[in-house]
Structure formats: structure tokens, C-alpha cells
Specification:
The complex is a heterodimer of chains A (about 160) and B (about 400). Chain A has about 160 residues and is of the alpha+beta class. Chain A has helices spanning about 5-10, 15-25, 30-40, 80-85, 110-120; strands at about 60-70, 90-95, 100-110, 130-135, 140, 145. Chain B is an alpha/beta fold. Classes of the chains: A alpha+beta (about 160), B alpha/beta (about 400). Chains A and B meet through α2 of A and α3 and α12 of B.
């Protein structure tokens, strides 16, 4: 399992096999085999762009929903979590420590749409005892990428 | 009207040449869309916890002079750092002096050692400050032209050939700006063998000591048998922690030497910037992981750049230190100056001509990899286009 390749792809999923070969000092066939291995082993689950949706007029909105859940016999929180994650509206689901149990990130076209999803699909489930919805107002950093005030290179063209 | 030709010091106005890159800087300033590989400083911001320590010191009104030699706590951390990294032992009191960047340390060390007419051996290509500073101190620069076939390392034979009874000092600039050359233990043993029985002082500029790539890490010449007593070590925070603008470095040497250097420092500078000193304490205490992170990134970029130049048919030896590559431009058939000027006009890429670092740098360019991988690739693509164009 090549951690260096994993770290590089985590930074930039668009590095080509030949880029990665140069960067790691491996040959291209080795890099390819390594990536395959990482994918098969389920370490690499996908390759996505980091998008600043706020730059689009009809950007989607998202909310962090705190759920308190009654754990089920045998299954604990698993069943509820796995059920919730199937919705297209749900971006992420996490089991949490602390004052609530599941953290669900939900996205939708409008605040209303998200609120309706929570009210109709989540709040109605009998295992879920309470919900608290927190809308995201502004994104500063997403997946390690700063979305605001990107620092400009203030160095001149030359220095010795 | 005042006649400035009569006013100005002849030494400064005539014997000291302006920097070799001024011209290109002016051209680049007037152009849009220049992509540069021309800088000698990191692109990373200073790590937040280090900045934060500086800010906190301001909030606590630590805005006075410090001791001439620098905060004792900082000298203590410097001492520990050099010990754990390179096995060098210096007493915080008396053997460590905090300076305004490595540059001030270099200047003061030269002035403390060199008298009029003393010879100072300077291997080149190397950083541009040594020769003028030696001249200002009244010394006579004696240049050794390092060779690409030796990976720009200094050999014992080259050194021995230049030593005379007037030789006072050897400038020892490794890891090297601009070549990226390093000196490994066996290389250092050979140099030490030449110097051990002499009274020649080594000024070891180790500002890039933490930026070495590959198996072996930096070895200080001061750690070689018999060399501590005759070596002045220069180091600093600029390159290691991406703190160029904080202007902080240090000099370590035996007490009799530090005592004299401190005199110059005390009269010329008083004490190094206080805010920077507080930030530097934090850097030394908790900055090792920052160094590792930045170094790993430089290493990736280094490989991309060397590979890029080689693919264009340019000879490029593998740099093992600092953050520069030093490829040969022989394939272009141009001089270093023509190459840099034409490349700038034609493809808007800024690189530094090798001869800015001494005559032996002719036929090479310095390209820095203090840039993102995308930036480096774009610049190399453009250099490729330029090479096709001039064929």
C-alpha cells in the first residue's frame, strides 16, 4: 500500500500516472498497480472536483443536521445511518460523540427544500427523537481548499 | 552642484557591481503574464503557530531591544536544535549570536576575520553576497570554479591549489544556492584533511541545511574531527521555516570569534528584531513537522522539474539540497544572459542566468522550485516551446 501516492492524490486527484511516477520515483507500471490496489482495497473511493458552488447564482444550499437517535437492538445506530445515507439529498453521515448521535449533511436547491426534507423524511422516523438544523451560510474552506481570500504570490519575478 | 563621483566611496561605487538580475527584473516588471522560476524564497506562508507566537509577543508588548546576542531563550533553542540535528555543540552564552538574517551573520563574520589583503577562497557558482562582502572588508576574493562533472562539490585538490600563506578564510556554501549541490561526509573529511593543520577559518553557510533530499541528511563541516574550532556556522529561519521576511538568522562559533562578531553586530544592529525572535523560539520548539511537510513538497517539485528539463534534452544534474535546479543550457547554443533575456521576451518565463553566481555559472540557468507543481509544469512547457523556436 503506497501512502505517498495516497497523499499526492488526496492533494490533487488529477495527477496523471506519469506525474505520480516522476514525483515518487516509481515507474509508471508500479504507480498504476498501486492505484489499482488502493481502489480495490477501498481506500480510494472516488475522485471529485472541489467546487465553489457559491460562484453560481443558483448555488445549492446545505445544512448540518444533528440527530438524536434511539439505538436499535443488535444494530445500534448502523441501520438508521445506513437508511439515511441512501437519500440523494444526503451528502455525508457521521456517527458522533457528544450531545447528539448522527450528523447528517443535507443539500438542496433552497432552504425551504432542505427544511422540508428534514421535516418529512428525517423527523418522521420513529428512531429519531429530535433534529436540529443548522444552515451553512458561507463556505471558507472546503476539503483543504481555501475558497476565500486566496493568498496572492507577492514575491517578485526574481530574487537571488 | 555636488559631484557625486567625488562623494561616493570608490570601493562601493566602482568595485562593487550591482546584482546581475536587476535588468531582468525591470523587463519582467513591465510585462503582463510573466511566469517565474526566479525567486530564492519559499512560497509557503510562515506556519500559523509561528506567526501566532510573533503576534502574541506583540500583544504582550515585547517590543523592546533584546540582549545584543539575542534572547537567551532563543539561543538556548538554537543550541538544542543544532545538537539534535547535526550533533553540533554550542553554548547559548558566548557561542551563539542571533542576527538579522543569515546575511548579517555572513557580513559580520567576514569583517571579524578578514584584514586588508587577506585572501578568502570562494567556491562558485554560489550566493552572490560573498565576493562583495569580502571586498568591503578589504579582503581579496580567490575564486574556485566548481565543476558540473563533480556535481558542483568542492574537492580537496581544488581547494589545495588555491591556498597560499595569505589565505584567511574559506567560504563554504553547502547546500548550495544556486546549484543544489551538497557535501556528504566523505567529501567533508577530504576538505577537513586539507584545513586541519592550517589557520584557515571556514565560514560554513548552512542556511539550506534542513532542505536535503534523498538518503543522507545534512552534515555540518563543524562536526568533522578538528573542524569545530576553525568553523563559523551560519544558519537561519528564512528557508527552513519559510520566514524570509522576518529577517532572522544566527552565527555559531567558538567564543573568541563570536566575541568579535558581536562587537560589530552591537554597533551596527543593536539586536535582531524582537518579534521575529519570539516567533523563532516557537519555530525551533514545535516546527519540526512543518519542515518535514515543506520538504516533502519540495522533493516532489524537485523531481518534476529535473524530469521536465531532462525531457527537453537539457542536462540537469540531480540537486540534493536547497530548492533550485541548475540545468545546462548547452542545447540552446546561447549564453546564460541571452537565454534568460530571450526566454523572458519570447515565452515570459523568468529564470536566473547561471553567471549571476560567478563566471563558472555560465552555460547554466537557475530555476527555483518554490512554486506549485502546476506552475512548474507550465513554465517548463514554455521553456520547451522556446527551445523549439530557437532551433
Amino acid at each position: 500500500m503506497n501512502i505517498q501516492i495516497l497523499n499526492l492524490l488526496a492533494k490533487n486527484a488529477r495527477y496523471t500516472v506519469s506525474d505520480l511516477a516522476v514525483m515518487t520515483g516509481l515507474d509508471e507500471a508500479e504507480v498504476e498497480a498501486n492505484i489499482k490496489e488502493l481502489e480495490v482495497a477501498g481506500l480510494i473511493r472516488g475522485y471529485k472536483a472541489v467546487i465553489d458552488w457559491e460562484r453560481l447564482d443558483n448555488a445549492y444550499v446545505s445544512a448540518v443536521i444533528e440527530l438524536k437517535v434511539v439505538p436499535q437492538d443488535e444494530y445500534g445506530f448502523e441501520k438508521v445511518a445506513e437508511n439515511i445515507m441512501k437519500y440523494n439529498e444526503v451528502e455525508s453521515v457521521y456517527l458522533m460523540s457528544g450531545t447528539y448521535d448522527l450528523c447528517v449533511i443535507v443539500k438542496g436547491k433552497t432552504f425551504h427544500e432542505v427544511a422540508m426534507f428534514v421535516a418529512k423524511e428525517l423527523a418522521t422516523k420513529h428512531e429519531i427523537t429530535s433534529t436540529a438544523t443548522h444552515f451553512v451560510l458561507r463556505r471558507y474552506k472546503e476539503l483543504d481548499v481555501e475558497l476565500v481570500n486566496t493568498e496572492k504570490d507577492e514575491r517578485g519575478a526574481y530574487s537571488l | 552642484m555636488i559631484d557625486y563621483t567625488k562623494v561616493l566611496s570608490r570601493m562601493v561605487s566602482q568595485d562593487i557591481k550591482p546584482s546581475g538580475i536587476r535588468k531582468y527584473f525591470d523587463i519582467a516588471e513591465s510585462m503582463e503574464g510573466v511566469i517565474s522560476l526566479g525567486v530564492g524564497e519559499p512560497d509557503f506562508p510562515t506556519p500559523w503557530h509561528i506567526k501566532s507566537a510573533g503576534i502574541q509577543s506583540l500583544e504582550q508588548s515585547k517590543t523592546k531591544y533584546t540582549a545584543n546576542a539575542g534572547l537567551l531563550a532563543l539561543r538556548g533553542e538554537i543550541s538544542k536544535f543544532l545538537s539534535r540535528k547535526y550533533g553540533l555543540e554550542y553554548q547559548p552564552k558566548g557561542e551563539v549570536l542571533v542576527t538579522v538574517g543569515g546575511s548579517e551573520g555572513i557580513d559580520n563574520a567576514i569583517r571579524a576575520i578578514v584584514s586588508r589583503g587577506d585572501e578568502v577562497i570562494i567556491p562558485q557558482p554560489s550566493f552572490v553576497c560573498y565576493e562583495p562582502l569580502v571586498r568591503l572588508a578589504g579582503g581579496v576574493p580567490v575564486i574556485i570554479d566548481l565543476k558540473a562533472e563533480n556535481e558542483f562539490r568542492l574537492t580537496a585538490a581544488e581547494l589545495r591549489e588555491k591556498i597560499t600563506d595569505k589565505t584567511k578564510m574559506l567560504i563554504f556554501p553547502f547546500p548550495c544556492n544556486p546549484t543544489g549541490a551538497i557535501m556528504e561526509r566523505e567529501d567533508l573529511e577530504a576538505i577537513a584533511e586539507v584545513l586541519r593543520e592550517t589557520n584557515i577559518v571556514v565560514l560554513s553557510d548552512e542556511i539550506y541545511s534542513e532542505l536535503t533530499y534523498g538518503e543522507s541528511t545534512h552534515v555540518s563541516i563543524a562536526s568533522i574531527d578538528g573542524m569545530w574550532e576553525r568553523t563559523i556556522v551560519i544558519n537561519g529561519f528564512s528557508k527552513t521555516y519559510s520566514m524570509t521576511g522576518w529577517r532572522l538568522g544566527y552565527v555559531c562559533a567558538p567564543a573568541p570569534i563570536i566575541e568579535q562578531i558581536t562587537k560589530i553586530h552591537q554597533f551596527a544592529i543593536m539586536s535582531a528584531p524582537t518579534t521575529a525572535q519570539y516567533a523563532a523560539i516557537e519555530a525551533l520548539k514545535n516546527g519540526d513537522s512543518d519542515i518535514e511537510r515543506m520538504k516533502a513538497e519540495y522533493d516532489v517539485r524537485r523531481r518534476i522539474m529535473v524530469n521536465g528539463f531532462r525531457k527537453l534534452g537539457m542536462d540537469c544534474f540531480e540537486p540534493r539540497g536547497a530548492f533550485y535546479t541548475f540545468p545546462s543550457i548547452k542545447v540552446s547554443g546561447l549564453s546564460s544572459d541571452d537565454f534568460c533575456e530571450q526566454l523572458l521576451y519570447s515565452q515570459k518565463v523568468a529564470v536566473v542566468p547561471g553567471n549571476a553566481f560567478g563566471a563558472s555559472g555560465e552555460g547554466f540557468i537557475r530555476a527555483s522550485y518554490c512554486y506549485s507543481t502546476d506552475h512548474i509544469k507550465e513554465a517548463i512547457d514554455r521553456i520547451g516551446k522556446f527551445l523549439k523556436e530557437i532551433k
